[in-house]
Hints:
This protein is α/β, with parallel strands linked by helices. Among the domains are: 306-401 and 551-682, Rossmann fold (3-Layer(aba) Sandwich), CATH 3.40.50; 402-546, Sandwich (Jelly Rolls); 712-818, Immunoglobulins (Immunoglobulin-like, Sandwich), CATH 2.60.40. Helix content is 22%, strand content 25%. β34 (797-804) and β35 form a beta hairpin. It is globular, with a radius of gyration of 27 Å. The protein binds beta-D-glucopyranose.
Amino acid sequence: MASVDxxxxxxxxxxxxxxxxxxxxxxxxxWSTPAEPAIxxxxxxxxxxxxxxRGQSWDERDPSLSLPSSSALGATWDPAAARRYGSALGAExxxxxxxxxxxxxxxxxxxxxxxxHFEALSEDPLLTGELATAYVEGVQAHGVAAxxxxxxxxxxxxxxxxxxxxxxxxxxxxxxLAAFEPVVTRGKAWAVMSAYNAVNGPTMSENPLLAExxxxxxxxxxxxxxxxxxVRTTEASATAEQHLVMPGPVSAWGDRLVAAVRDGRVPExxxxxxxxxxxxxxxxxxxxxxxxxxxxxxxADAEDGPVLARELAVAGSVLVRNTAADRTGNTAAGSxxxxxxxxxxxxxxxxxxxxxxxxxxxxxxxxxxxPAAVVSPxxxxxxxxxxxxxxxxxxxxxxxxxxxxxxxxxxxxxxGGPGLRAVFRDADGVELRAEDRTAAxxxxxxxxxxxxxxxxxxxxxxxxxxxAHRVGAAAAGHVRLEIDGVTVLDTAGHPTGDEGPGAAIFxxxxxxxxxxxxxxxxxxxxxxxxxxxxxxxxxxxTVGEEIVVADPDAEVAAAAALAAESDVxxxxxxxxxxxxxxxxxxxxLALPGHQDALVRAVAAANPRTVxxxxxxxxxxxxxxxxxxxxxxxxxxGERFGEAVADVLLGAAEPGGRLPTTWPATGDxxxxxxxxxxxxxxxxDEGVHVGYRNWLRHGGTPAYPFGHGLGYTTxxxxxxxxxxxxxxxTLGNSGDRAGRQVVQAYLSREDSAVERPARWLAGWAVVDxxxxxxxxxxxxxxxxxxxxxxxxWAVETGVYTLHLxxxxxxTPLRVEVIVDG
Length: 820
Ligand code: BGC
């Protein structure tokens, strides 16, 4: 990275007129900042984030690596893994000619109902901040900026553009800002994204929290960019520490900001300060000055992305239950539970569940990327065990609405090759552009939509067996569908809920017609999109089939029958993008559809039933004590299925520990609501978030924070504290190598201040062969501070350090003394 010469920046700013400077402060389009050839500044490309780098388009012909969702990264508890994760994204950004990655998302898992929970790391600020810092360092090592988001308290999606989150100073500092602090002060992030929501009155893109603590006390010298479409005023946002408005080219700044400077409402020095930050970012990413590379290409030392995706999915998967239901010789030798299975001795395996075949490998919304290939659990198990040993049945439907046609079932009528043809036409029917695509789920943004587009026509030959089908589209706008020249559908659909730029993608309604075909058929679909917001057209169209299960009970029974005939059963349960996505919160944590009935029936049919949970956030598992094992796989990235096979068959240890408490019913007192009342959401619980609230109210969750099992057993033998250094002796008492996360929580009895019952103060990830070993944990100073009357304070005296393997499993206690 080039070092930044502030005198040079001053000189460059001096070369620009007011209009030129202001122009730089709004995006040139959806994904880039303007170039200014007069000073040698090229455009900078920004890309979502946070679990892949999508690049400037959603086009499947330009695929991107899809890593496991951030909640899976949170579950690794492993800063080294987070650094590799960030580094892979930095390399991916370089490959895609992107300068800025829009991640990590470091809002807290305040409520499990939060729709974007999958995109954030944990309910704990220390765990979030440590992992995010390593992620940022990993990204930026490639000369690519990371953008921790969304600053701050964007912890739920309900009314996300307008909600006013009322959070007291202490709670903000100790929790929500605490997650951002190390990312800025230690990770030295080059950019931060301000949130859509308001905090204590002002919306975040004009909030005083941008100045203090961010650019003031923490010394952030990077660029604050707005969330997409968040800036709605001129003076109020321009006089805040808000530096770049995204996207563009139309924004509330531009001419209006020029006028405000001319009228003396906004000092020109304020504009200069923002330009300075933009240019500083440009220097850092190599976008300014002679010889700046347009991109550095993929770094030679970049890890193999798909291999890393598989490893991280293993490292983040959390085995929350593993009992010896009915042990036989094909459970691996030495195991104390049902898992791992010994693949050499295993008989037929029933793989059940919609998500086993149609895996959710990532969350919905702006985190979406288009990987080259995805391995589902069914495919992963077939590859590991041989197709003959694995029998599949859906059992219960999860993904509802129109699902895209599988690529292998589509023929492009123009090229004769696989896929479809999409043609943009103007109102007179004149062709503006044609694309030959291989996927049936299509998204175009900003300049990708040709000017003057009236409609998009999609043509394909669908290779389908004879019979009745429900076909159509998921799209916001008017859809007309012809099958073999006959119009079968002519209707309009509108998104519900979220009104933002992404609604056309996240919430496109399905419209379908029931048809009967004799076999392969020609489809012609005409789509007239609803008009997007000015300057931000987003057009999304999925062409496909809707599955309708005529008799759900019979489907469950058929799956259970398959389980009864098999040696073991794997049920993959989970959510779909209609239940868990950016743009809305969940209203229930229950698994959608008939999945609970499916698990119960399968477990009754075969005691050796293992459930794999494919969700980005907690879901309810009411049958959890009736199955042999439960593995939480999150949204496991593009190699999810390989990771599931690795873990079930014991090729690898499930390395994860819960980064967030899993409730039992979702309506326990400790579970917080993210739903505003009258536009306001008050964080009444103060510092008692997540496990802290569970401990305060004394409830018992399904699984506590920090919980997770491996395939070996451990003893915790002793601990000594010297200053802030804790040395823990422990032992791997099993007969295979394993991973353990030794966790350290503080508490303070007889405290003069109200405190959480316990709070995480440090941890160590231990990989060890059988035998004794040592873990070292350094307790950070920040673990001992609390916010009091607008400043940090430290209460002297005796703290208790609780050491163990989850927040409620802490057999060791030692004292830590803090002197004045
Ligand atoms: C999201 C951001 C995202 C941006 C660009 C917004 O709606 O909140 O996280 O980076 O869109 O896609």
